[in-house]
User: Fold this.
Amino acid sequence: MFILGCIAFILLIAAWGTILWQPRPMPAISSERPLLVGHRGVRKILPENTIPAFKLAFDSGLHGAEFDVLRSKDGKLVLHHDFVLPEGQVIAELSYQEILALDERIPLLEELFELCKLYPKLLINLEIKSETFFSDGVEREVVKVVRASGLAEQVLISSFNPMSLLRVRLLAPELRTALLFYETLPRHLRHGSLARWLHVDAIHPHIEQVDAEIVNRAKARGLMINTWTVNDPNEVKRVKALGIDAIMADDPEALKQAAR
Assistant:
């Protein structure tokens, strides 16, 4: 029985990384390619990760937005890039009301979702900010809010933390996820084995990591490939020619002009 159990476990692990993994498309978003996505809204024009910045991005005709999510002490999902506020206060140690008292511009995830409902077929790229192996509950809260929003088919949950992505996959198999990486991730893990074991639907390499090889391998595996942060017009043209799926940038008008 022990041997049979071991064999079954090995087969299950093998299946998890092969036949049980199939990246899924996102038919609920715009079919145009490349998608032009506002990085934290329009951070070159308005304060990043704020509702006015996202509204301007959408009004400018961008296909979506990328933003960062952290969990406050009282379990609220706030949009903020850094783990600390400019004065050094740790967001995870503050209630949302305490956060608002320090910066009233910081919104909740639910507020952004309400705005997104006014614009059809947006790509909603939610990045979970997490640096630890263990969870503070942010993934569970994200899953709950995404499901309640009615926008789940448009949401792509990304993270640099593989454990966050795995937790989302186990909590909500129906949601789409994306692996973020920079040069610190070994090349063979960027778009191959790690993506497979995490069951992600997309990869998000930094612009410096994007070349024909990584794009072609992602396409061959059915992975969506989106890059950040592309503010150089020549780089926009380069990755567009490679067949990238989405380009994230800080200035919507400059991005649109370069993409044309």
